[in-house]
Write a structure and sequence with these properties.
It is built from 9 helices and 3 strands. The relative contact order is 0.15. Strand 2 and strand 3 form a beta hairpin. The radius of gyration is 17 Å and the shape is globular. By secondary structure, it is mainly alpha-helical.
């Protein structure tokens, strides 16, 4: 599932007009969304030619986008003009978990100090969309709205370096969430979003950070369980 409003690399909620962006930037953002939301599964190999046909663009912008994504660790080069999404190892899950648990609660603290009533209303709307996707068993919707929820909080933190770093961590972690959904279904994906929303509404900064830490830890546990089941 690809939503063009949600695929900007650093701020998925920008209202800037991207119509004048170079073709390779559009291709990069589309491929990035395909990785982030699990349209390209871990270990699934794709060819440059196949991507040019699917995206309806020339080979040059596809190659440029792939170079960027390989440099970011979102793809690996397989040779023979093939690339694939890396399969997470237990060790890489632990590394990603360590970094996410260090950064995302801190971004939440910063967001809690700045968030407005209007932003809280929008955040609750994001969570409503997420809950509906869970009820409907909509895996693509779950992945999209879960990302929107988290990314909006981090955008509110006004900490560009940490936010960009976390977004790259999600790019490595996101495809495995699709695997989790496939194994356990959306109904088995509880979250701490309500605790987080209540803490933000109450202005309880540390409670919000703790809810985020627990939400991140829960996702790490689910991915770890999926890996162990393999």
């Amino acid at each position: 599932m690809m939503n063009q409003e949600l695929i900007a690399p650093t701020n998925p909620f920008t209202s800037e007009d991207t119509g004048k962006a170079p073709v390779h930037q559009h291709v990069y953002e589309r491929l990035r969304a395909m990785i982030l939301f699990g349209d390209l599964a871990p270990g699934q190999a794709v060819t440059i030619q196949g991507l040019t046909s699917e995206l309806g663009v020339g080979m040059t912008p596809v190659r440029e986008a792939l170079r960027r994504l390989i440099a970011e660790g979102a793809l690996t080069h397989q040779g023979n003009r093939r690339v694939s999404v890396p399969i997470l190892t237990a060790e890489s899950v632990e590394e990603l978990g360590f970094m996410r648990k260090a950064l995302e609660p801190e971004l939440t603290r910063r967001a809690a100090n700045r968030i407005t009533t209007a932003q809280l209303v929008h955040l609750r709307s994001c969570d409503d969309d997420l809950n509906m996707a869970i009820e409907q068993g909509d895996v693509g919707g779950y992945l999209t709205h879960n990302y929107r929820f988290h990314a909006f909080i981090y955008d509110c933190a006004n900490a560009a370096i940490m936010t960009a770093t976390v977004d790259q961590l999600w790019l490595r972690f996101g495809p495995s969430l699709r695997v989790v959904c496939g194994r356990f279904g959306t109904n088995n994906l509880p979250d701490r979003h309500m605790d987080l929303l209540n803490a933000l509404s109450a202005g309880n900064i540390e409670a919000a950070a703790e809810a985020m830490a627990q939400d991140v830890e829960q996702g790490i546990r689910q991915v770890r369980a999926a890996l162990q089941s393999d």
